[in-house]
Write a structure and sequence with these properties.
It is a single chain. The protein contains 14 helices and 12 strands. It has 333 residues and is α/β, with parallel strands linked by helices. The chain folds into 2 domains: 151 residues, Rossmann fold, CATH 3.40.50.2000; 148 residues, Glycogen Phosphorylase B (Rossmann fold, 3-Layer(aba) Sandwich). The strands form 2 sheets. Strands 2-1-3-4-5-6 form a 6-stranded parallel beta sheet, sandwiched between helices. The two termini are 14 Å apart. Pfam families: Gtf3_C, Gtf3_N. One of its GO terms (molecular function) is transferase activity. InterPro entries: Gtf3_C, Gtf3_N. Keywords: Transferase.
Length: 333
């Protein structure tokens, strides 16, 4: 059985693009299961897009998209709409007998709440033979909104790294890694807990308990995660994950959770987040309603309880580093 993992390439600015890291990991993991990579270049300019479109109409993309595959898994990013739409059309045209599956990284309609996005994605998701989605909450949302295509869940994104799993001391400090431009809640997080920030586009000012530590590449960031907990939060408010990004937390598997866990770091997560149940059931950290209570929540954790969390995190880290969840989803689709 010939299997293809198809991916639209994206340039990582200084190698710090987490979206690229997630897709690259899946390419590498899928090869363990016998998948061959198909890398699709996203046309960078209007002129190159026009050329790509003309080739599509004239049959000029046949050599690029025709395979002998029985199964094609396409990494659906939720952006690159132009290239995605043409690629799916070409894959269907030149591989009519292959099973076509989307591995979903983001659902644009769920993330941005735009009707035009959903009209497009509803059509795309129901046109393929299978979907690999983040978790049961995302699966339920898609079913409730008209998706009839068979789905399997990933549960959590794997995270490949060659760095050793950290054995951090229980210093009660917290780290937050991500796009700081959209993490405006951090400017209001005045607590006693020391918080270190990593990521692009920081605010001009943060409370005294917060220290900006710069931008690190995904494959080296784990070396700097010497804190006790990794924070996952989105939106403008410290009292809940609000706004579009906050709502998305109810359905999404944030890649930073996988980063923290694969690095050996227990997490702090909003209680209504999609992965909160996974964190609770596996005792991998703390779930919290309101970051105003952060000091009290951390103060209640004893060294013994923290060490138990660390043992559980170490077990899950090994799973994420071997691609367990991706391999199971690819097997079950």
């Amino acid at each position: 059985m010939e299997k293809i993992i198809a991916t639209i390439s994206e340039s990582a600015v200084n190698g710090t693009n987490a979206g690229s890291k997630a897709k690259d990991d899946i390419i590498q993991i899928s090869q363990k299961a016998g998948f061959k990579p198909m890398i699709i270049t996203n046309p960078p300019s209007h002129l190159s897009k026009l050329a790509f479109l003309i080739k599509s109409y004239c049959g000029g993309l046949k050599k690029q998209y025709q395979t002998n595959a029985d199964l094609i898994v396409f990494q659906y990013a939720g952006y690159f709409n132009f290239t995605t739409d043409i690629s799916l059309k070409e894959l269907r045209k030149y591989n009519p007998n292959a099973k076509l599956v989307l591995l979903i990284h983001d659902v644009a309609a769920l993330r941005y709440q735009q009707a035009k996005d959903w009209q497009r994605e509803l059509k795309i998701f129901n046109s393929v033979d299978g979907l690999i989605v983040h978790n049961n909450k995302m699966k339920q949302w898609l079913e409730d909104h008209g998706i009839t295509t068979p789905m399997v869940t990933l549960e959590i994104f794997d995270y490949l790294t060659a760095l050793p799993i950290n054995d951090n001391a229980f210093n009660r400090n917290v780290v937050f890694a991500g796009n700081l431009e959209k993490s405006t809640f951090l400017t209001k997080l005045t607590v006693n807990t020391q918080i270190d920030l990593f990521g692009p586009k920081p605010a001009e000012h943060y409370p005294q308990n917060i220290t900006y530590q710069g931008v690190k590449k995904p494959d080296e960031l784990a070396k700097f995660l010497t804190q006790s907990f990794g924070l996952v939060w989105d939106g403008d408010s410290i009292h809940e994950c609000d706004g579009l990004m906050g709502n998305y937390e109810k359905y999404n598997d944030p890649h930073k959770i996988s980063l923290y866990l694969s690095s050996g770091l227990p997490v702090i997560l909003w209680k209504q987040a999609a992965l909160a149940d996974f964190i609770i059931e596996n005792n991998l950290g703390i779930v919290i309603d309101d970051l105003a209570n952060l000091d009290n929540e951390i103060a209640q954790i004893t060294p013994k309880q923290y060490n138990e969390m660390k043992k559980n995190v170490h077990r899950v880290a090994e799973e994420l580093r071997t691609g367990k969840h991706t391999l199971e989803a690819l097997k079950n689709i």
